[in-house]
Amino acid sequence: MSDPVVVTAYFRPLPGQHDRVLEALRPAIAAVHDEPGCELYAIHDAPDGTIVMIEKWTSTDELDEHGKGEAVRVLNAALEGLLTSPVDVSRLTPLPAGTAKQGQL
User: Fold this and answer.
1) Is the dihedral of CA 80, 46, 92, 1 positive or negative?
2) DSSP codes, 12-52
3) I want to staple 75 with a disulfide (CB 3.0 to 4.6 A). Which of 5, 28, 36, 70 is the partner?
């Protein structure tokens, strides 16, 4: 098993589609929270209307399984036609610093 991995995913809704994107994301979040290795899977609003998801997975193997899973397939189908561009996803390696509570996700 590998080290933890943090993911950011940026969802850029088409004009007028922000609420529909949120509606598509909410059931996916509930489903993914039950997946093995999911430590964090949460959405946030950015000032420009972008929805930012921050994820943390126990390992890249579990993240890879998530990416092939039913919740992602259903989410991608629900998002079709609602975004200005494909979801922008980045995998990050945590670099803990400071206190254990405040210096890492």
Assistant:
1) negative
2) -BPTT-HHHHHHHHHHHHHHHHTSTTEEEEEEEE-TTS-EE
3) 28
Q: Which residues contact 76 (CB under 8 A, 6 or more apart)?
A: none
pTM, two decimals, is 0.92
Residue % of the chain over a pLDDT of 70: 99
pLDDT in tens, 11-58: 999 999 999 999 999 999 999 999 999 999 999 999 999 999 999 999
C-alpha to C-alpha distance for 30 and 97, rounded to whole angstroms: 30
Nearest Cα residue to 55 out of 42, 72, 44: 42
Domains and CATH numbers, the chain: 5-92 (3.30.70.100)
Cα–Cα distance measured from residue 21 to residue 51, given in angstroms and rounded to the nearest whole number: 8
Question: Three-state DSSP class for 77?
Answer: helix
